[in-house]
Amino acid sequence: MNKNMYYDKILKITEKNNGYITTKEVVNAGIDKKFLTNMVKNGKLIRISKGYYGLPNYIADDYYIIASKSKNARFSLATALYLHKLSDRNPLVYNITLPYGYSGTLQKQKNVILNFVSRDILDLGVIEMESPFGMKIKVYDIERTICDIIKNKNKIDGEIFSKALKDYAKSKSKNLNKLASYAKIMKIEKKVGEYMEVLL
User: Fold this and answer.
1) Which residues of 35-68 are buried (b: 16+ CB within 10 A; e: fewer)?
2) CA dist 92 → 28, 81, 112, 122, 186 (Å)
3) How many CB atoms neighbour CB 198 within 10 A?
4) Is 85 found in the same domain as 11?
5) Domain that holds residue 24
6) CB 3.0 to 4.6 Å from 97: which of 21, 74, 101, 185, for a disulfide?
7) Are 45 and 94 contained in the same domain?
8) What is the mean pLDDT of the chain?
9) What is the pTM of this model?
């Protein structure tokens, strides 16, 4: 296979992935990663972050770019509310939850607000969703997000907070058993119970 065939194969994978590709995907396809480097030099791809590349003419997916910088990054709080349609405010700054002790590149990123938790609850309620651009990202489910905003009320805009709780209480898909279970694990049973008692 000549180098142009490798380039074509990489571009096909990238187009299938909504304009993004990882070094891992290239290696798994049996292609030497040096071809990625050459494609960046030739302007056929842009390097987004370590191990992640995109087509130069694609709209940047900030969700995917942020998620690519740490395998432990979880979209949370106001950003998770937006992704779950419990807020209509498109985030300009993204809320990310990470484990205590994290010291990576996201700490220097200006469009990110970091929230830290212990590792034993980092994956509590984590699900995989598609970003608005169709890329897979890790987000807290609705019940974990409701627990998080109650626990971190001081970090949430008052209007967003009230609307999210009211909309959740009205939702037919709410899972109060799951909410209570998360609240117990997060040691905020009383607070969550008080809010739900008023709303339900």
Assistant:
1) bbebbeeeebbeebeeebbbbeeeeebbbbbbbb
2) 35, 14, 9, 24, 28
3) 9
4) no
5) 3-58
6) 74
7) no
8) 91
9) 0.81
Q: Is 69 left (phi over 0), alpha (psi -120 to 50) or beta?
A: alpha
Tell me the pLDDT tens digit for each residue of 17-49.
878 888 888 999 999 989 998 999 999 998 877
The answer on 93 and 19 residing in a single domain is no
Q: Are 7 and 42 within one domain?
A: yes
Which helix (H) or strand (E) is 74 found in, with range?
strand 74-75
Domain count across the chain: 2
Q: Answer yes or no: do 42 and 75 share one domain.
A: no
Query: Quick one: pLDDT at residue 1?
Result: 59
Q: What single-letter amino acid sits at 133?
A: F
Quickly state the pLDDT bin for 173 (edges 50, 70, 90): very high
Same domain, yes or no: 39 and 101? no
pLDDT score for 136: 87
DSSP secondary structure, 91-152, as one string: -SSEEEEEETT--SGGGG-TTEEEEEE-HHHHTTTEEEEE-TTS-EEEEE-HHHHHHHHHHT
Give pLDDT, residue 24. 86
Residue 68 sits in the same domain as residue 51 = no
pLDDT digit string, tens, across residues 107-151:
988 899 999 999 999 999 999 999 988 888 999 999 999 999 999
On whether both 194 and 115 belong to a single domain, the answer is: yes
